[in-house]
Specification:
homodimer, alpha/beta, TIM Barrel, 8-stranded parallel beta barrel, 11 helices, Xyl_isomerase-like_sf (chains A, B), Xyl_isomerase-like_TIM-brl (chains A, B)
């Protein structure tokens, strides 16, 4: 059985699986690539994780995630930058362990407003400054920092970078080989400026990752984990995929779905469902 | 006791109160204006509602709400337009019944995607066309249609107009005396383009209504009713008020908070708390 050749299973879709179980489920579903998360990698240690990835024969499409660097100057910011530098090294190692075609991409989520802080513009500036502080490290490691705009529903508590245009405003201050953006349909599907911004990202060769999840209603009690597999919701995924293709992106396409219904299911079953949903509804070309 | 002279209590903040109880609670708190909703007006009938408003001595700052006109051509769209024409007449009558300084403003919420429809751009076009179909009726009645951009979290199921810029793109196709926009802090606080768009709205004299609610976290199980009184959340209300003032808006400022904790409380108490929160955290000039 073989899935769409550009499909990558982001590990968050099978959140409770160990790294080995996630890799096995991905392969069993005929999927050729995987998007990794730092926590399950840390559970086995980086060296062992790289060995497992190499054994799997899978491509690595990204590592989630760095970022969370909106703290004001001080110990919190220093610690966040140090953590991101470790994440950069992990990204390089895991991509090197993956099959040819792996992408040394570190997904960055900016983080929210520090407690009690209402200066959203200030937090956004600090996020930009943090990207600047990490760009040389990324370039030296051959890693692309991929700034992920988060849906505005998360602006207060998770990600102050809210639109693709805003992410590009930051990324374009640095070389394209060091800083790009993530286009995640869940976060950007609503944006009236999306066609223009995806085209802009393509012109600058800034699309470092393309992720799919669908917007389902009614939203569950926790909006963070209310996502759906492609085809289950309201987002025009095929339309967005056409924009991303037209912008020149030819890399792997991750399905990253935060949803309890998937997390509670068997990872192999979720991987198979993901492959079927992707084939039916992603609109991604082979 | 007298509240801030520009404060208006939007009736949604005391949702379960009758029109008379809402008017009484507003006056008892020393608040000089009220934002009305169609449902409690309909509960007593328009004529009686106008008499109650006239008796109250309050200004009317807006009527919520028209809109919900994204249906494709057919009976659904025809019915929606007819409903909006009734709402225009109600707006004119209620504003005429209010104290001097009342504003004949009808708040429009576009509505979401029709069931099974993923063509967000198409729904947005139909919303624009519906505004166009109503603009002459509004002008003839002396009413301003105020397009309210809704937070993108509601793009699928409630309002396909997601940003102030997008609302202005529509409004600017029609005369300013007939079509304007609502700036509601809850819906737009996250927007990196907000300063530019508020200034643009001011230049065109398009700000027909300014509404305050705060963004609180964690979001409750229903994001629609997870709002907070000014000062209870993360939005920089004083900063946004400064933008709106600088843009030339001098009208009443509504506090419109959808929250079970307020709806379950005594309306007079809620009105008093609203006045206190507004005085402390709105940043609105006297």
């Amino acid at each position: 059985m073989s899935a769409h050749p550009r499909l990558s299973l982001n590990q968050a879709t099978v959140k409770h699986a160990s790294l080995l179980d996630a890799l096995d489920a991905t392969r069993a579903a005929g999927i050729g690539a995987v998007g990794l998360w730092r926590e399950p990698v840390a559970d086995v240690g980086l060296e062992k994780a790289c060995a497992l990835v190499a054994d799997s024969g899978l491509r690595v499409s990204s590592l989630c995630r760095g970022g969370f660097f909106t703290a004001p100057p001080g110990p919190g910011r220093t610690a966040a930058l140090a953590e991101n530098r470790r994440a950069i090294e992990e990204t390089a190692a895991l991509a090197a362990a993956g099959a040819p075609g792996s992408a040394p991409v570190l997904v960055l989520v900016a983080g929210g407003l520090p407690g009690g802080d209402r200066d959203l513009a200030g937090a956004r500036e600090r996020a930009r400054d943090a990207v600047g502080a990490l760009a040389d490290d990324a370039r030296a490691a051959g890693v692309v920092l991929a700034i992920e705009p988060m849906h505005p529903v998360f602006a207060a508590d998770r990600g102050v970078v809210s639109t693709l245009g805003q992410a590009l405003d930051v990324a374009e201050q640095f070389p394209a080989e060091a800083v790009g953006v993530v286009v995640d349909t869940y976060h950007v599907w609503w944006d009236p400026d999306l066609p223009a911004q995806v085209a802009r990202a393509g012109r600058g060769r800034r699309i470092a990752s393309y992720q799919l999840a669908d917007w389902v209603t009614p939203l569950g009690p926790d909006v963070l984990v209310s996502r759906g597999l492609p085809g289950d919701g309201h987002a025009d995924l095929a339309g967005i995929s056409a924009l991303v293709e037209a912008a020149g992106y030819r890399g792997d396409v991750e399905v990253e779905v935060f949803a309890h219904a998937l997390w509670d299911a068997d990872p192999a079953d979720v991987a198979a469902r993901t492959a079927a949903a992707f084939a039916a509804s992603s609109g991604v070309r082979r």
